[in-house]
Specification:
The protein has about 300 residues and is of the alpha/beta class. It has 13 helices and eight strands. β7 and β8 form a beta hairpin. Bound molecules: ligand H2B and fe (iii) ion. The site of ligand H2B has 10 residues, from α6 and α9.
Length: about 300
């Protein structure tokens, strides 16, 4: 039988308290695990995500001086690399985020302002989330052009390291790409394919997501550039992925879907997309090979899924 999936935007409200590992309890090797002040602050911020409902503005967070400084350290380090390493779509949008959403080294931008900006660009919106969702829930959100975003920041003791998504990863890595129409379509395509998919197919789609939205690189003229958020938010790996050392292969979803990958070290292989449009068409084609007795379409007027 077909696994349950969200049919209307409000169905996403059911994801709020279904977070994995680090949602409420921090892993022992997390830099903030033994810091009670950090843990209390995390709990305060994730409470917003726990009670958030569709249609609400995302509550404003008054970030502390320490949190803003952590952000500033990450922002200053990464922005030196974007001109030479980020794809042109990321570079196009970044100054618009500075103008419209107060991106800059001084203070962490507010998710609500960023979400409104994305809505104007591509119809994507952000929802606050307590921590890692299951792959199924997370991908299902993309079908609605919804990106689940953390709102807390990494521990100040290691500004350039985090074992999990945080607001730096979301705002500097993911957000700029969701403002691009072709990338938005591409991401939604993975989301649509995930609705009601079998567990095995969710695993395949999560792997495709990993090698594209998180660790994708793309060809731009005679150069290659990074578009994956895991790369764009990691000073070390952003340098490494374009260094000529790792293996590069063409983006073919059926092959990508079967590729094993490490999650705590740099990737030994990256897949190169020719363009987001091309990648979307390939994922759409791949989706028809998945084991699902129906197809789906998103109705943007009613913000609901139609079953075909
Ligand atoms: N949950 C959250 N909150 N953020 C993510 O980036 C994320 C997730 N990534 N769940 C998902 C899993 C990804 O690793 C794939 C789809 O499994
Ligand atoms: Fe991510």
């Amino acid at each position: 039988s077909t696994p349950w999936f969200p049919r209307k935007m409000v169905d996403l409200d059911t994801f709020a308290d279904k977070v994995l590992e680090m949602g409420e309890e921090l892993d022992a090797d997390h830099p903030g695990a033994k810091d009670p002040v950090y843990r209390a602050r995390r709990a305060e911020i994730t409470k917003i995500a726990k009670t958030y409902k569709t249609g609400m503005p995302i509550p404003h967070i008054e970030y502390t001086k320490e949190e803003n400084e952590t952000w500033g350290a990450v922002f200053n380090k990464l922005t030196t690399m974007f001109p030479s390493h980020a794809c042109r779509e990321h570079q196009y949008v970044f100054p618009l985020l500075v103008q419209n959403c107060h991106y800059g080294p001084e203070a962490i931008p507010q998710l609500d302002s960023v979400s409104r900006f994305l809505k104007d660009c591509t119809g994507f919106t952000l929802r606050p989330v307590m921590g890692l969702l299951t792959s199924r829930d997370f991908l299902n959100g993309l079908a609605f052009r919804v990106f689940h975003s953390t709102q807390y920041i990494r521990h100040h003791s290691r500004p350039l390291y985090t074992p999990e998504p945080d607001v730096c990863h979301e705002l500097l890595g993911h957000v700029p790409l969701f403002a691009n129409p072709d990338f938005a379509d591409f991401s939604q395509e993975i989301g649509l394919a995930s609705l009601g998919a079998s567990d095995e197919d969710i695993e395949r789609l999560a792997t495709i997501y990993w090698f594209t939205v998180e660790f994708g690189i793309c060809r731009q003229g005679d150069k290659i550039r990074a578009y994956g958020a895991g790369l764009l938010s990691s000073f070390g790996e952003l340098e490494y992925c374009l260094s000529g050392k790792p293996e590069l292969r063409p983006f073919e979803p059926a092959k990508v879907a079967a590729q094993k990958y490490p999650i705590t070290e740099y990737q030994p292989v990256y897949f190169v997309a020719e363009s987001f449009k091309d990648a979307q068409m390939r994922v759409r084609e791949f989706a028809t090979s998945l084991d699902r007795p129906f197809s789906v379409r998103y109705n943007a007027y009613t913000e609901s899924i139609e079953i075909l």
